[in-house]
Every structure is written in structure tokens, then in C-alpha cells.
Design brief:
The complex is a heterodimer of chains A (237) and B (629). Helix content of chain A is 19%, strand content 34%. By secondary structure, chain A is of the alpha+beta class. Chain A folds into two domains: 107 residues, Pseudouridine synthase I, catalytic domain, N-terminal subdomain (Alpha-Beta Plaits, 2-Layer Sandwich); 117 residues. In chain A, strands 1, 2, 3, 4, 5, 8, 9, 10, 11 and 12 form a ten-stranded mixed β-sheet that branches. A two-stranded antiparallel sheet of chain A has the order 6-7. In chain A, strand 10 and strand 11 form a beta hairpin. The longest helix of chain A is centred in the N-terminal third of the chain and has 15 residues. The C terminus of chain B is likely disordered. Chain B has three domains: 226 residues, no CATH class; 184 residues, Transcription Regulator spoIIAA (2-Layer Sandwich); 45 residues, no CATH class. In chain B, strands 2-1-3-4-5-6 form a six-stranded mixed β-sheet. Chain B has 629 residues and is of the alpha/beta class. Chains A and B meet through helix 1 of A and helix 1 and helix 9 of B.
Amino acid sequence: MKVRVKFSKYGIMKFIGHLDVMRYFQKAMRRAGIDIAFTEGMSPHMIMSFAQPLGVGLTSDGEYMDIEVRTPMSSEEAIRRLNQAGAEGITVTEWKQIPEDKGSKAMTLVAAADYELRFRKGFAPKLDWQSNISHFFAQQSIPVIKKTKKGEREVDIRPFLYEMYVNAGTVYFKLAAGSEANLKPELVMDAYLATQGLEAQPFAYEIHRRELYADIGKDGKRKLVALGALGEDVPCA
Amino acid sequence: MRKLALSDELLLSIEKPARYIGGEVNAVYKDAQKVAVRFAMCFPDVYEIGMSHLGIQILYDMFNQREDVWCERVYSPWVDLDRVMRERHIPLFALESQDPIRDFDFLGITLQYEMCYTNILQILDLSGIPLEASERDWGCPIVIGGGPCAYNPEPIAEFFDLFYIGEGETVYDDLLELYKTCRKEAVSRREFLRRAAQIPGIYAPLFYETTYREDGTIASFTPTEDGIPSVIEKQVQSDMTNAPYPEAPVVPYIKVTQDRVVLEIQRGCIRGCRFCQAGMLYRPTRERSLEVLKQHASRMLENTGHEEISLSSLSSSDYSDLAGIVTYLIDEFQGRNINICLPSLRIDAFSLDVMSKVQDVKKSSLTFAPEAGSQRMRDVINKGLTEEVILEGAAEAFHGGWNKVKLYFMLGLPLEEEADRKDIAHLAEKIAATYYEEVPKDQRQGRCQITVSTSFFVPKPFTPFQWARMYTPGDYLGFAKTVNHEIKAMKNQKSIRYNWHQADETVLEGVFARGDRRIGAVIKEAYRQGALFDAWTEQWNYERWLQAFQTAGVDLDFYTLRERAEDEIFPWDFIHIGVTKNFLWREWQKAHRAEVTPNCRQQCSGCGAARYKSGVCMEQRAAQGGEAE
């Protein structure tokens, strides 16, 4: 049975990088007694894939991984066990059965992400930095200079910026995510501040990922649904 | 949410912030207000090394079983954080509570290798604890050292209030109780140390004085006050089966060196290799029962979720029910995709059979540790391994499908000659030739790969070689060159690779290993000049150390190039480990005659460890009806 697990990452766990979160879950699965499936071959490993790596320093309520289990377990039971076997800073919130086909993998489906950004205490610009966000978002194009290995290149990030607004000091974003196009909130924020003649200090942003989405829209019309909404709760036997 | 000692932006700007945040699975959290004693347990190296150490996990668990003690962990901040902590005056903190170390009751430092000595000073310095024990008051924790290097504590004696000589499982409870009483009675710190010095196995350097002869050797080492014992007895946990063992060790978030469940099947070694300090320090050899090992293995795997389990001991093949434990691990855990590591196995039909079950023969390599190239030298060092056995084992392994072999040797052993060094190359060549003779062409997976590694020998206290001289870095490199040349002259040289170690580090290790109290000044000076993480090649700076010797007015060669006389008083003579100096001297004489000594199970050699009345010594007595020591 294929299962999509949703979890939050917060507190001190934000300092644990993506690869170590994978290691964390590999051990947590064993402690929780989840009968997870392994790949075949000389060095079998757990069938486990993450939707989208989360950078070190970020927190999240919308992390997903897909796993395969050999013995089905109810959502209630699995969530309880994983949280009991877990560490403070990671909470499993969903356990949903998903379709078996390859096209349903979280990693392939992920198309957008919600983020919240605020300034770390003492790092906010002294001047008013919030007022012009709606103007910035209203622009038809937002050219930014992207540094690549070959040098600098100008790209328009506006097509990948789906939503941006500010409320009580927190900036909310909906951005393209996944393998096709991926926009980082700090890049958008840097671009915005630059239009205001401002520049953030290093490590000024506190960024929280809220949700990851798949795009189930047709004919080029975007229709985003949370990755977890594509699966079904597993009831108690 | 848990508090952190370091700010987010600082943690995000250094390498591997997970080293400093604690909060791992099975880490122990208590209410600091509700415990009587706060103990900071330190491994003076980086987190990934320190977290791999079994001894700390044992003591961490043991202390935290007590309701009145909260034991936390602390490791050396890597050089990036070290710099920032000094610049911003951030005090060193414990991982769990993130509270400053200076506010703890005890700071316990495990001494696993000599090259960590400057890191001890870093820990004290960053904690705001005076480097010299004599300058500390009740505002500082009691700094106590333990572990193998504590068996010659003298080079670092001035930095410690106490040393614990022996295995931690035995008298820590007495020490903690004494501490509680003393604090309640509001006695002076010195008075506490005085009383602690009367607990068996506890050494308080403050109450001892060394005098020297004109030639620089020790004239006397004596207590300075009445009631302070002149001899410190090693503490031994006699019943290993019922000894405390951590069933839920801390599981690090980041990958550490030993990222697996470690099952200590026995302590000590029956072999009596003359170069090996552990083989003497941990006598008598004591086993854990198979039943309790099975229980530990399954509970530890359940509680950690580790995907690998490893046996730990000095020589696993000597465990009396090796087949029992190995079969259990394979039957019970292999089906659950848990890797099984079987280090320190002698290569024979049995070990090859089990190894082929637990590892990919094509990818893995087999390890032999002949330690010396010639049979004469193997007899000198009492390594009971013959060329015949090695070649038979190799042939059997080649037939089993292995084609990678690792060989470990030492260079600069006492009584070693040019011919012995060349024999290292000859032995490697014979193993390579065995492959081409034994394995028909159509069954070969290409060439065989023989990797020869040599390390330079460092004489250690409490070994028969404690009287031996060392050499200069130039001499050592010359020895390695001889081996290298000889390998290049072999017919199958293309199948043999050769690695050797740094030579100057060996010399310093030698000084620390057998040094006396005068070495403390050199360590302090080198630390002041920036020496830190000396075990790390990228941080190592020999010139700085030579300069420190000069500034401190200490002659390095005195400690390394001199063969000791029979009656020389060693800095560590006041420690008694059961094995007597007499026995060690006899072994040193036998080494000169290239005479081997049988292992403890073959015949008791009367080393003295029988006074602990445990382990293999009792087996002997049962079999032989009570032979005298």
C-alpha cells in the first residue's frame, strides 16, 4: 500500500538538513514498528521519497513523503505511533493512502508552495517596508538577476509568483515549486526590497512553509490542491 | 520550544549546527531544579566522534538512572564556532539544558587518545574554568578525567581536580554521594577533594608531589598529606553480565562515525600482545552472557531504530559463544534489513562463512592484522599469528570470492631490524601470489587488491614495551621508505597498495603517553599558540609544538629516544592495574628472546590480574584447581 505522510518541522529541527530528516524518518519508522517496504537487491533501502526538500533554517507545516508499507495500518494508529517514536520538532499530521501509479508520486506532482516570511527579531528594516508589496505584486513582469555558474542572467520571476501580500508584518507567498519551476521566497523578498532601495542583512528572514500543492487544472488553467488532499484516510479495521 | 544557547543566525552561519542543539531521540531531560547533582559528560573532540563512543553512553545512562543526578553531554565546538564563542564571549554549554558548563557540579572528561589534550584546555577555557585546578573554587565544577589515558594522568594532572582510574561502573555512586554530603556540610573544595582521594580508584593530583633526579628521571612520587593513599587501585566491573548497559542510547540526527547499535560482548583480551595497552589495562577478560546480549541487542534496536548492529570487543573471535551470538543476530535481524558488522574476527572457516552471510563479498574487504612482517617480530610482540595461518586464511577467502585484503602493520617496534621491515612487503607479496595460484584465471574478478597500512608504534604505559625507545620522525619515514621500496620490487607490486601514517604526530603521542608532570607546561604553551584538534590532519602543526617545547624548556627527546632502565620510576607507577610491573618486565625480557607467552585460556602466566577474581582468571581456577598468582 502506498501512503503519503504529512508532517510539520519546527523548533530546533529546523537546523536538521534534508538528508538527516530522511535518516530521522528511516529510524523513526523502525521505532514505530511501521512495516515499510524495501527495494530489492544487495543493499535494500526503504521505499521512501520526499516531495520537496526543505532548506536548513526553514520551518514547515506542509512537508510530505511517500512511502510503501507491506502491512496496512490505520491513519490514526500510524500517526500515533510515529509521533510517540518521534522527537520534539517533527509532528506527523496525516497518513493517507494514495494511488499506486507512478504519476501519483509527490515528487512529480508538486507544483506550488505557500510560504510565510517575517523578519527575525531586530532584523526588520527601520523604514516602512510593507506598504508597496501590493504594487510590486501588481507588476506585469519582475526581472531579477540570477547568478548561475556561467555568470549572471536576467529572468522574469513574475510568472512563478502566484500570490503575495502582507499582513501584520508577515508576508504571504504562493510560489511555483517542483522540478519544472521553483521560486524561493527569499529571492522574491530580496527583489521586492531592492525596488524599495533596501537590502536585508544575512539571516534576516524567518521562513515557514505552509503547504505544498499539486496542480490538477486542465488546459493550462491552474487548479492547486494540497498534496495530502489527493489521498484517503485509512480507517481503523 | 526548547531554548538554545546560540542564536538562529549564528547556528545558520556555522558548519553542522545539529552538533550543538541537543534534543536527539533518547536524550535525557530533567528539571534542573529537582536534581542534586548536575554532571556534564565531555568527549573532547567534535560531536560526531564523541557521539560514537560507547563509554559515554554507558555512563550517561547510568547517571541518569539516578533521580538525583542529571547527566548531560558536551563536545568540542569545531574551530568555526570556537572562534565565534571567543569573539563574543559565549560560554560553553551542555547540549540538553543549553546551560553554561561552569554552573555544573561536575565536568567529566573522557580521555580516549593523547592527541585530544589541547581540546581539554579548550573545553575549560570556553567554559570559563581556570586551566589549573589549583586556581578553582566552588564556583567551578569538579573536573574529573577517566578513560585509557587516565592510566598515565601526569602530563595533564594540573588541569584536573580528580581522575577516575578504572571502569566507570564501579565507584561513581560513592563519589556522587560524597559530593552531596560535602556540599550539605559546606566543606571546602579542598576538603571534598581530600575525602574523594580516599575512595578506591580516585586520584587527586593536588595531594601528590614528584621529585626528580639530576638525569631528569623521577626520584620520588609521594602523597603530601596523611591519609592520602600512595597507590591507586584500578577499578574493575567484575560481573559484566549484570553491569549497567544503555538500552536506549541517544540517536544523533547527523551521521556520526559509529551510527549503529554497539554490543559490547566482552571486556579485555586474553591474547597478551606486548604492544597493546588495552590488552593489559582491561584484564581480566570478562564476558557478557549470551542471554543478556540477545536482550540488549533487540531492545537497543527497538529503541533506536538503527539499521545496523556491531559487535564490540578487543578480539571477538575469543568470545566463548561467538557462534551463538552471531547466529542469533543473523536469524533474528537479517530478515528485517538490519546490517550486521563483525569486526575483529580472526579469519578462519567459521568467520568466512558468517561474513559471507552478512556482507557483499564482492564489495567488502577482509582485514588481517599481522602487526609485523617477520615471524621473529611477531614472536617479539607476542602476536600469535603465523604466516601459515595468514596464507591459509587468505586462500580460503579468495576461494570464497573475496579479492580485497587489508593488512595492518606497525613500524618502529622495539628490536625491529631492516629485514623485518622488508618482510612486510614479502608477506603482502605472498598473499598476492596466493590469489593468482589459488584462483583460476576464468574465476578471477580482475586483480586482487592488497592494501598494506603501517602505523608507527608508540610505547604505552602498562605494556611490556613501556621501557622501549622511540625514534625521530626522520627515522620513521625511513622505515616506511624501506617498506615502500621493497613493495615496488615485488613481482605482484601492481596488486599491492601501501599507506603510511604521519611520523611527527607519532612522536608527540609518544611524549604524552609516557610523559610526566613537566609536560603540562608544554601543552599549555602549545594551546596558547593556537594548537587545537591535533588529531585532525588539517589542524596539525608540528612546528608549533616544537616551539612550545622550546619555550617551556622541556626536552622532547628525553621522553622519546631513551630506553628506560629496569629500576626507573615511571610517572604511572603509583597506579596499580592488577598486572604487575614484574610481569611486564618479564615479558620485556621474553620479547628480547623472541619468546611467546601463551594466552590466558591456554595457560595462566601469573600477570597479577587474578587479584580481581573475575572473568577468565576464574575459568582458569575452575579448570586448574587454584593456581597461585
